[in-house]
Amino acid sequence: MKVSVLASGSSGNVTYIETPKHRVLVDAGLSGKKVESLMHDIGRTLKDVDALFVTHEHSDHIKGVGVLARKYGMPVYANTDTWDAIGTKIGVIPAEQKMDFEPGKVLTLDDLDVESFPVSHDAANPQFYQFHHNSKAFAIVTDTGYLSDRLHGTLQNADAYLIEANHDVEMLRMGGYAWSLKQRILSDKGHLSNEDGALAAIDLLGNKTKQIYLGHLSKENNQKVLAHVTVEQIMQNRDIAVDHDFMLYDTDPEIATKLTVI
Ligand SMILES: [Zn+2]
Ligand SMILES: [Zn+2]
Questions:
Q1: InterPro entries from the xrefs (predicted)?
Q2: CATH class of 2-256
Q3: How far is the CA of 112 from the centre of ligand 2 (A)?
Q4: Which residues lie across from 106 on neighbouring strands?
């Protein structure tokens, strides 16, 4: 399995996953044109993408979904509550392309198993995905206020993670966001801070884990270096050998990460 985080951040999210038989996306939270250009950057084309998995209805996850579905005709998977919440926000998607995929289910596409799981976030029924191929696992978990004990079981010891490091708590507290928005982000249905993302990663990682991507950084309330150093420090304090046991990668809202074997 190969993975590229095409874009990650509060401004837009898309992740690309491929196996010998399938090429899929998780979310398309940028314009269709931007997703096309990011795919081009990793030497791939949307013409070959045969499924798109949507996590929830926030615009940083669905902005380009309608355009891509209409232009390329791939099936789009989301749970029924999310479909209802999306409504007409992204225009009309032909009924035969709209697939229901409920949380806690596994969808098998030949050599790729896709497992959906619920997260705690202020959307209708947000779910993220873990991909399994040839006994390798890649889990994406962003847009969540915390990780439940049950999720710890589901996501334990994956080969790679894209995990949320949304904000620095001090930057968020001191910053210009309205009080209510700050409360929302900090709540159990908001986003993981750098510290919380580090602790979640520490709980999840195991001897198989070789890659951790830090994602969904807030433009206003975080910085790439700050997120990286904070996570690295918390891990090192617990005697976890970052960049030895596994690699810790940054992601970017506009630059795709290198297509990497999981
Ligand atoms: Zn969200
Ligand atoms: Zn988001």
A1: Metallo-B-lactamas (IPR001279), RibonucZ/Hydroxyglut_hydro (IPR036866), WalJ/YycJ (IPR058121), WalJ/YycJ-like (IPR052533)
A2: alpha beta
A3: 25
A4: 115
Residues 68-80 have a mean pLDDT of: 98
Distances in whole angstroms, Cα of residue 38 to Cα of each of 7, 95, 180, 257:
8, 27, 34, 10
Domain ranges of the chain: 2-256
- Per the CB < 8 A criterion, the answer to whether 63 and 36 are in contact is no
Closest CA to 54 of 114, 112, 138: 114
Taking CA atoms, 231 is separated from 15, 102, 134, 159, in Å, by 22, 32, 29, 18
Task: Please compute the mean of the pLDDT values over residues 14-18 and round it to a whole number.
Answer: 98
Q: In whole angstroms, what is the distance from residue 160 CA to residue 152 CA? A: 14
Amino acid at 138: F
Region 71-79: mean pLDDT is 98
> Count of alpha carbons within 13 Å of 236, Cβ hemisphere only?
10
C-alpha span between 225 and 83 (Å, rounded): 36
Rounded distance from Cα 239 to ligand 2 centre (Å): 31
- Residue 41 to residue 259: CA distance in whole angstroms: 10
pLDDT at 187: 94
143 CA distance to ligand 2 middle (Å): 5
Q: How far is the CA of 58 from the centre of ligand 2 (A)?
A: 6
- The mean pLDDT of 68-83, rounded to a whole number, is 98
pLDDT at 47: 98
In angstroms, what is the span from residue 10 Cα to ligand 1's centroid? 8
Distance 237 CA to ligand 1 centre (A): 30
